[in-house]
Amino acid sequence: QVQLVESGGGLVQAGGSLRLSCAASVRTFNSYPMGWFRQAPGKEREFVARIMWSGGSTYYADSVKGRFTVSRDNAKNTVYLQMNSLKPEDTAVYYCYAGSSSRPDYWGQGTQVTVSS
Questions:
Q1: How far is residue 53's CA from residue 16's CA, in Å, rounded to a whole number?
Q2: For 15-74, what is each residue's pLDDT tens digit?
Q3: What CA–CA distance (Å, rounded) separates 48 from 56?
């Protein structure tokens, strides 16, 4: 069964850093664009970042540009989200996805990120 499994979430103070990981269960994902969404309490799920299969093209939401970096290691079937200068408004459940950002084909189960002020 195809799976995306996130890890790396947790509690951090404002200004701190976290790195999220998303491991894919099959090498097939190496041909997919992959990335991250997030959903804060009471809000809709929103796009955060994506990276093309080759790793050469990335795109970010304006709210995280300059603070977050998405990367991937196709040899490990893993995509990462390095989050720096975290703010309380970054608090959310972060979801890894594979496929088009407008209609993802696969989702991970989510990992909680909480940023305290």
A1: 29
A2: 999 999 999 987 777 788 999 999 999 999 999 999 998 867 999 999 999 999 999 998
A3: 17
